[in-house]
Amino acid sequence: KIPGVVAPMSARRRDAEADKVIANATDSSCRACGVERLTFEPPPMYCYSCVGRIKRGQVYYTMPNIPGGEMRKDTWCNPCYNAIQGHIDIEGQRFPKNSLIKKKNDDDLEEPWVQCDFCNNWYHQICVMFNGRKNTDGEAHFTCPTCILSQIEKQERKITTERPNSMQPAKTLTKTVLSDFLEKRVMDKLAEERVARAKHLGIPVETVPTAEDLTIRVVSQTDKKCDTKTQFLEAFKKDGFPEEFLYKNRVILLFQKIEGVDVCLMAIYVQEYGEDCPNPNKRRIYLSYLDSVKYFRPEGIVASIGEPMALRTFVYHQILIGYLDYAKQRGFTSCFIWACPPFQGDDYILYCHPKVQKVPKSDKLREWYMKMLRGAAKEDIIHSVTNIYDEYNLGGSLQEVRSAKDYPYFDGDYFPGVAEEWIPGIIAEQEEQKKQMKTLATGTKVNARKAAKSQSKKVYSASIDGDLDSELMKKLGVTISAMRNDFILAHLAPKCTSCRKTVADENLYVPKEVNPKAAPLRLCEECQSIDSALPKEEKKFLNRGELVCQKCPPLPAVKDEKVKEEEDKAMQSEFFDTRQAFLSLCQGNHFQFDSLRRAKHTTMMVLYHLNNPSEPAFVASCNVCSRELEAGAGYRCTVCADFDICEECRVRVGHKHPLQRQGRGRGERQQMTDSERQARQQQIERTMALLVHASSCRNAKCDNPNCAKVKQLFQHAMKCQTKAAGGCHLCRKIWTLLQVHSKGCVAHDCPVPRCADLKAYRRRAQEQVEERRRKQYRKYLAGN
Question: Greatest CA span in the chain, whole angstroms?
């Protein structure tokens, strides 16, 4: 037994326990796990209007099923449904209130099964790592593990040495400069830690267990845009505040091979605002989301390097420290972190965590980040760590508080959301105060007791003579003062203590003798000259002793990674485009991480989608046998909401309502080749270009023969009374084209019809997610 290591269950005991379970299993139980019925965790459901969560057992209303159309997932709680007047508008389409369907949130979906072609035993698809997406028309061959071993022993089957292209491991995912940088750092640090632990335990290095088979990959890196919200832009546009900020969105995943199977352990979303981005976001990084599941191996080991921490934490910290080092080398100057843990029932990236994994409290999560930053500081990767409350002097007077225009404006951050909510309230409160002052000036009596009682209830009160900028920052300071340390700011380059600017390619003045108990002092050349010219009694930094001069190097240029063109294309992943997109993929397909068996299967499916980007994100399942249906296959009820049935169950069981076929007949569907996928993508790009051209073309005799066809579709959509919501085939066709276009459109004044409506709908969906997070965080603040 090795000290410091929790001994896992022995193989003999594990096999004995498994045999015992199988022996007690019934004929209808899974031959792998011995359990008969396993159900998925129901995905969380939120009201489209009030953003409140629809709890289990509650009544809700959902969109009607459009025959042959896209299944919508928008839902309304009972109170919001009652408040709807006549109709509801979604993505530019109008649906009558009486067309919404009443349902109850009590669905239970059972894990799908698969039958062995040789022994005819039934297994849970998750237990045997069966990919239901490859089960075309239910005719995919499957051999259970028992039969495979038996056939190998009888030499009736050869051991598979190569995986199919659709089932490649994590190591085959595209490498980037960043992923190689992070992998090398983690491997080097693990080797260093292993030597230190062996020395501490007094045993040979080769006998010390360490983390193995780790893979780090960047699975998405896309250019995105953060739009300044309406109220904030109206308030500060005259001062030159930008309308938008362009940034690079990166997604980093950590995999570990456990029992021969890749398991996704950690996911990170980061936003990178480059040197071309305007202030206040220039050269800044925002650690947007981080999530992990507790399956790291080996367990129960304490790292022997740095502060005491589990080996799992040590690896996660090294990934983050490595990323900060990489970002610093590319010229980024600061990193913002909002240490906000997920709240009860919510997940950030990885859907459905294991029950044994506790959600950290805010103080625990904050210390987790601070421990990582202290490690980065020891390597001189970061220069200083502070919080936004102190950085922007939010606790000072109105004259001392820094401007809201200097506060970084990140996509999905706390400040942009609350600022948008507060600005109308601050303006209204100041107007109300002016009315009261006017009333007092005219001699009208005011109920002093009522006014004082109303004022005492407010945590924050706007000043009648304060400008909006100062009042906004003042309210931010009052709101987050108790939890100021949750908003962490790490400086990757030296900052002047006085003027707060980044010091680069100029002289920097620091104390000759460092006082470990005092806050770090760094002065740029300008601030040092001003301070030294002041009389002795007016000097701000006199008590810090003699200052010495250091020359700061210039900031390197922020450049994109040098990857091949085809590798750069591979970084465009629809499923990881946003963390909500990936979370929705997992929720909609029941890709859960709540047990190791499910985490293995989920990771297999994630890798499948990464290796097959043209495959559909969501597939329907037969409501009778629960088997997944290939995209476009099976039948859908024209009356029931969300009812699909496979070919076999339609013949064997049938359905009481008319069914509409969703695809081609058996044997007609072919798996797309790589060349076919490329041709399909090129056709989509040509169609999108044609859509933009036809929307702005005013030439009745346009040379493009397809221009007139698209214009005819537009004309039909304007005159049609049935619309896509009513099942019009042509309206559905043009609506699909408009949706595909709007997803990739970044133009402000796009000529394509309904593009602005569709983008506004997706923006609202994202704002709903942010609003839920802020609302929960406010409740957390109120309870502390």
Answer: 104
Q: How far is the C-alpha of 298 from the C-alpha of 302, rounded, in Å?
A: 10
Span 676-719, pLDDT tens digits: 556 666 777 788 888 889 888 988 888 887 888 888 888 888 88
**Quick one: which H or E segment has residue 76?**
strand 75-77
Q: Look at the block and give the residue holding tokens 């490329």.
A: 678
Q: Which residue, chain included where needed, has tokens 């250019």?
A: 223
Q: Are residues 426 and 235 in contact, defined by beta-carbon separation less than 8 angstroms? A: no
Closest CA to 483 of 543, 428, 414, 541: 414
Give the C-alpha separation, 416 to 392, whole Å.
15
Give me the residues paired with residue 254 across strands: 216, 266
Helix ranges restricted to H, 202-246: 230-236
Residues 687-705: b if buried by 16+ CB within 10 A, e if exposed: ebebbbbbbebeeeeeeee
Most confidently modeled range among 47-56, 176-185, 420-429, 687-696: 176-185
Tokens 């296959």 belong to residue = 633
Per-residue exposure over 520-544, b if at least 16 CB sit within 10 Å of its own CB, e if not: bbbbbeebbeebeeeeeeeeebeeb
Gap between the Cα atoms of 72 and 761, Å rounded: 13
- pLDDT by residue (tens digit) across 322-372? 999 999 999 999 999 999 988 777 889 999 999 889 888 889 999 999 999
Task: List residues bridging with 266 in a β-sheet.
Answer: 254, 292
How far apart are alpha carbons 197 and 288 in whole angstroms? 34
Query: Is beta strand 334-338 parallel, antiparallel or unpaired with respect to 284-292?
Result: parallel
* 266 C-beta neighbours (distance < 10 Å), count: 22
Q: Alpha-carbon distance 6 to 494, whole Å?
A: 43
Q: What is the rounded CA–CA span in Å between residue 199 and residue 205?
A: 8
Query: Under DSSP, is residue 549 helix (H, G, I), strand (E, B) or coil?
Result: strand
The pair of structure tokens assigned to 29 is 């139980």
User: 247 and 226 in contact (C-beta within 8 Å)?
Assistant: yes
Q: Which residue's entry shows tokens 């038996």?
A: 150
Element (H, E) at 88: strand 87-90
Three-class SS of residue 202? coil
| Token pair recorded at residue 303 | 């790292």
| Single-letter amino acid, residue 128 | V
- Could you tell me the pTM of the whole model? 0.81
- Tens of pLDDT, residues 374-427: 999 999 999 999 999 988 888 766 556 788 999 999 999 999 999 999 999 998
Give the single-character DSSP code of 46.
B
Helix (H, G, I), strand (E, B) or coil at 449: helix
Residue 495: CB atoms within 10 Å: 23
CA distances from 728 to 156, 535, 695 (A): 55, 82, 21
Q: How many residues are given for the chain?
A: 784
